[in-house]
Amino acid sequence: MTTSRFYCSVALCALLWGSAFPCIKTVYNLWGEVDFFTRWWLAGIRFTLAGALLLLFAHQPMAQLRATPIRYTVGIVLCQCFFQYIFFYLALLYGSGSLCALMTATGSFLWLLLAPLFNRGSWGGWKVWGILTLGSIGVGLAVYAPSDTSVNAPLCILLMLLANLCGTLAILLFGKIRPTMTAKASSGFGLFIGGLGLCLLGSPALPDTPQLFTPPVIGITVYLALVSAISFTVWNDLSTRYPISLLATYRFIIPIAGVILSVLFIPEDHFSLWILLGTIIVALAMYLASKGR
Predict the structure, then answer these.
(1) Residue-wise over 221-254: b if at least 16 C-beta within 10 A, else e?
(2) What is the distance between the alpha carbons of residues 240 and 238, in angstroms, rounded to a whole number?
(3) pLDDT at 289
(4) Would the pTM count as exceeding 0.70?
(5) In this structure, are residues 204 and 37 in contact, taking their beta carbons and an 8 Å threshold?
(6) Could you tell me which residues come within 8 angstroms of residue 120 by beta carbon, excluding any fewer than 6 positions away?
(7) What is the rounded distance in angstroms from the CA atom of residue 46 to the CA atom of residue 217?
(8) Using an 8 Å Cβ cutoff, are 142 and 279 in contact?
(9) Are 55 and 185 in contact (CB under 8 A)?
(10) How far apart are CA 195 and CA 202, in angstroms?
(11) Helix crossing, 215-239 with 153-177: angle to 10°?
(12) Closest Cα to residue 21, out of 273, 256, 211, 212?
């Protein structure tokens, strides 16, 4: 993969995942008061559709599934989709889009902490952790908001930590199944089966589907399905080609994109000079991470 293609792939994932924050909050605003079952129903439909699209275009996905140890497949399903997005959608209920975007940055630290346990590697030197700390400072500044309107910020932070832990485990598990399953097939099975599980969890909302899924909500749901299908496949593939320390730093683009897009499309989130300053610091961290690679 060329350098330009690497940057384009990272930017694509960041923009797609970052756009998910305002999209989901927009649906919630359109619905007004929404119970837990409705949230799971939305998530289930989104991921089931995304997984079906990926499996449709994957090469012999069932053959790949049979060749892969079942424990790794189950782990991908539970971590990549089911539990990660139970926590994620709950976090969006209790916190602002900006706060949730900020907490996405913790995934970089979790990735570096857990990777050596899976791959028997090192935890990196002080330069790696220094760059990650610089990036996290930039993200923190970007979402600095003294008048944050989160319903329950501490609970939101805890839920996002759990969501990021699940997502990190899913990426590391993908490294285990890479010899027998492609990124497209593994993401497809993880999203499709996990999405069905979320649909089952949200099934009490099934009778309300005609009222809930108006044309704008249908459009956003289809878009979110495409976000998941494309971004998970691309990022899983990148995780097998590049050092974790490099990707962990570039992962900071995701929360920055989420903050900026949330400010643009969510009425309760507002632009500030902190966003500009934080973005500059994150860009500096990414430059330092890529220097010499």
Answers:
(1) beebbebbbbbbbbbbbbbeebebbbbbbbbbbb
(2) 5
(3) 63
(4) yes
(5) yes
(6) none
(7) 11
(8) yes
(9) yes
(10) 10
(11) 50
(12) 256
d(CA 52, CA 41): 16
Per-residue DSSP letters for the chain? Answer: --HHHHHHHHHHHHHHHHHHHHHHHHHHHHH-S--HHHHHHHHHHHHHHHHHHHHHHSSSHHHHHHHS-HHHHHHHIIIIIIHHHHHHHHHHHHS-HHHHHHHHTHHHHHHHHHHHHHH------HHHHHHHHHHHHHHHHHT--TT---S-HHHHHHHHHHHHHHHHHHHHHHHHHTTTS-HHHHHHHHHHHHHHHHHHHTGGGGGGHHHH--HHHHHHHHHHHHHHHHHHHHHHHHHTTS-HHHHHHHTTHHHHHHHHHHHHH-TT----HHHHHHHHHHHHHHHHHHTT-
Q: How many CB atoms lie within 10 A of CB 266?
A: 19
Which residue matches tokens 């069932």? 62
Structure tokens at 136: 């996290």
Nearby residues of 215 by Cβ (< 8 Å), 6 or more positions away: none
- Which tokens sit at 115? 């990777």
| Tens-level pLDDT at each residue, the chain (293 residues) | 677 888 889 889 888 988 887 888 889 888 887 788 898 899 999 999 999 999 998 989 999 999 999 999 999 999 988 999 899 888 877 877 666 777 777 777 777 677 766 666 555 667 767 777 777 777 677 655 544 555 677 788 788 889 989 988 888 888 888 889 998 999 999 999 999 999 999 999 999 999 999 999 999 999 999 999 999 889 888 887 887 767 777 777 777 787 778 777 776 666 667 767 777 777 777 666 666 44
Measure the CA–CA gap between 293 and 188, rounded to whole angstroms. Answer: 31
Written as one letter, the residue type at 135 is G
Residue whose tokens read 């559709």? 49
